[in-house]
Design brief:
By secondary structure, the protein is of the alpha/beta class. It contains 21 helices and 21 strands. The strands form 4 sheets. It has an 8-stranded mixed β-sheet, sandwiched between helices. Strands 9-16-13-10-12-11 form a 6-stranded parallel β-sheet, with helices on both faces. Strand 18 and strand 19 (586-591) form a beta hairpin. Helix 7 (203-221) packs across helix 8 (234-246) and helix 15 runs antiparallel to helix 21 (553-563). The longest helix has 22 residues, at 521-542. The radius of gyration is 25 Å and the shape is globular.
Length: 631
Amino acid sequence: MLDRSLLGNRSLPFWKMAPEIWEMIEAGRGVLVMPTGLGKTTQIGPLLHETGYTDSGMIVISVPKRVLAVELATRVASEMDCDIGDLVGYQIRAEKRMSHKTKILFVTGGILRGMIQRDPMLEKVSVVVFDEFHERLLDSDLNVGLVERAQNLGSKVKFLLMSATAVAEPLAKHFGCGMVNGEGLSTLFPVVETFVNLNLENNGDLYDELARQVERLITTRGDHVNGLIFMPGKEEIARAIEAIKKLNLQLPVQSRILPLHGDLPPDERHAPFADFKGLTITVATDIAETGVTLPKIGWVIDSGLAREIYYSAASDTSGLGVTKIAQDRLKQRLGRAGREAPGECVRLFSEIDKSKRAVYTTPEILRMPLREVSLVIKSLGLKPGETLRFIDNPPEENWAEAERQLLMLGLIDPRGTITDLGKKCVRMGCDPRDAVILMNAAKLGCPHAAAIVIGARNARLFYLPSRKHRFPEWLDANAKHQRFKASATFDCWAEVEVLLEVEKRGEMSLGDWCMANAISYRGLQETWRNMWQLIGNLQELYGELDGSNDYSQEALQAAIATGFPDKVFQRGGRGKYWTRLADGTYFEAILARESVTSIHAPGRVIAWDIVEIAPPGGFPFNLITSALALH
């Protein structure tokens, strides 16, 4: 049997504070602040294993992104000399590598919430670790509240909040626990911070300047260190790589420019983390801010941007917009340089811009819809006067809007008590609106079709290059997509058509079929996994499902309508649609030209997705991107 004290990477500074960290966890709960790159995320599992916590239960480490769960589990398994899925494993949405032997499990927040709902007292878990807690994701805030409640009810589970940048004192005060500050362990070499005064709304200047900075950094810093560039999304990453390649730099023979974002297949996601003898320039989303440190990073170029969720309770609209990140995240990005030698961080914005930004990232619980959180809390059956404690309490109007929606959907009664339908909805493990659609689809005989369209919502199934910068390719891809939309009478049916066509592809490989039809291979796989997970949840509720109407557009429309009874819009003048909100005010939106529904300009539509568009220099407006007509 392996000596547990030999497992992990003992050369990392984390181990110098291991005794203090262990004592804090022994007390039941704690806060650990330690700079990036010192080993807190990869070494906390080996420490808890060494000190016997895996003898009494599982160590569950919650991380903010699926990519990180996979990469961290792979790294820790290697350092603990075991196969992935054995002692160390991971579980993310629709994908897992674990077994009955797994004692250290990396998960995302949604998976952890499901574990808590199935076992509120966490009887099989000894410690829950919340990594990168400074990001203050909605799932993290909810889950730590649920774990604290379990402790208060007598559970022996312990929990630890970890972060590279969080201010420990307020968290320690809120939870009444100890804290360990490892900032003194930092081995960060000096990092020069350079500012470039750019107008971020002028994208052309941004990409041209980015490419010039890459050229300068390779010249001044050498090709023996790697570079990391932060961009807000997949399209911006592609444009940045294209701009760098246009320079025709005299790069060494052994060199590569790699993207890193959540839509990549596993082997491409892993590539930037793998050993490589030459120069690597990684262009990444905020995935690279946290978790496993990329090797040999000597310089960082930071756009200062990220895609963040926003929400308006008044109109119940939310979306993902490009925004300027707060100073705590800027610090994280700078910290990626200078781990192995003096480094440089180039900000593609001014020093004045930086000084005006918020110091800390706004917690998601303050900028997201609360219907799912509210329903989960009601499912706990809290006693009179008992509440779930949150670090930051959302505005009262957000809670009120969540209650209104739950009552409208039949998930709570007028007294606010969860109904039987609401309890089933919680077991579905998804947004209450989506759960209502799925449960009604099961009754209408179209569960698979509903699971496809819901499973595809965040999977980016249709591949479209930039219309502005790669118009011929965009035109070709758009033409290929039209055949899936030709028979559709409403948006989302095209996703069902895609999966129908996939089944008929004959001998053609899946990859070749996706390329020929401009379909994202990764998006298709994710849609499949999501679909079967939702179907599995439905089968737990209803047993064998009736799929006799799976290919009926009418049945699917009827099911979707049950999830959005308050999203009926009436056509007005100048191509606009309007609806009356719960507070009596009127809300206007434009039906997107790309919407299948827009062809017939129907008198009334149900809006499934509404986003706020804020064009540079123009007035913001609301856009209905997915809809079905009401006849």
